[in-house]
TrEMBL record:
Record has Metal-binding as a keyword: yes
Any one GO molecular-function label of the UniProt entry: zinc ion binding
Short name of one Pfam family: ADH_N
Keywords assigned: Metal-binding, Oxidoreductase, Zinc
Protein name stated in the entry: Zn-dependent alcohol dehydrogenase
Organism of provenance: Halosaccharopolyspora lacisalsi
Family per record: Belongs to the zinc-containing alcohol dehydrogenase family.
Residue intervals of the Enoyl reductase (ER) domain: 8-363
Keyword Oxidoreductase: yes
InterPro entries for the chain: ADH-like_C, ADH-like_N, ADH_Zn_CS, ER, GroES-like_sf, NAD(P)-bd_dom_sf
Superkingdom as given in the UniProt entry: Bacteria
Amino acid sequence: MRAAVHTAPNEPLRIEELADPRPSRGEVAVDVTSCGACHSDLHVLKGELPFPTPGVLGHEVAGVISELGSDVTDLAVGDRVVTSFIMPCGDCAQCASGNEEICLNFFAYNRAKGQLYDGDTRLRRPDGEPVWMYSMGGLAQRSVTPTTSVYRVPDNVELADVASIGCSTMTAYGALRHTADVRVGDAVAVIAAGGVGSALIQLAAVFGASVIVAVDISDEKLADARELGATHTVNSGTVDAVAAVREATGGRGVDVAFEALGSASTFAVARDSVVEGGQAVMVGIAPKGTTGELDLGTLARKKLQIKGSYGAKPRRDMPVLLDLVARGRLRPQDTVSRRYPLEEVGEAYAALDRGEVRGRAMIDIG
């Protein structure tokens, strides 16, 4: 099969022929039709998030099951599926307590080492050299993943529309539903209207937020944010973003501010935009070592809540999201602004790095 292989930080992705991966016990192979280009992949490509090489990135996957591993009984060859970037092991202490979004084995084996839960990768070069997997290694014609990250796509939903459900949309849902518990009538701000930010805006409208303020430095992204449900937009490159967010709420501030980029400057906007007792929720993945400032006196006096959020609970939440899509309440396809063939995957990430991608770029593979 063909795959986009990451060989070293700041080096171009290489299209290589790898051996077809085979699923082991409790796993399936998926013939990939499309895979989203996520900012966390970009952090790996730039060396900002450590990951072993050679490796295959890509973790927003839609495709068709082509092979079953042993003991797989609830899925079938030919099923149209989407995957979640978090692949819960189902057995560790966090999974057992309902916190599968921070599955201990996912971080110990996969995010740290590019392995699945038997301590090995499913990817090999033709000479047998191992190639490591960032989640399921979706930037390839075939991907192997545990069944805990695989979900059937409803019959009335186009497969090409839903790859981003497994990362950007699921990440947004986890932040809104589990971390912030956004309620009908809440006022929210979304700081950075990229892939995850666009999903936050869409879902905040579904959740019934009365005020949704989108903050970005791109007028084009802000125009898209309006289409996705933002009630107010703020260009932080031309105005005082905090003052503008507060103006949109009559001087009060928002109940929840979601930081969706991962930088000190956007953290500061989120921190200062919330009402007393409000929540600033960090969703964007920052390069390792990035820090933000907190005035401890203000933190206590205003009873501010600073929270981190990492995805949703796949086995509970992916079916909910797919049902929203099937009923037309959620349209992830509206956040996809660019599509690239696998051969042009490098340009997709270069455009993402330049800030040119509105919403999500999609790599069409199948």
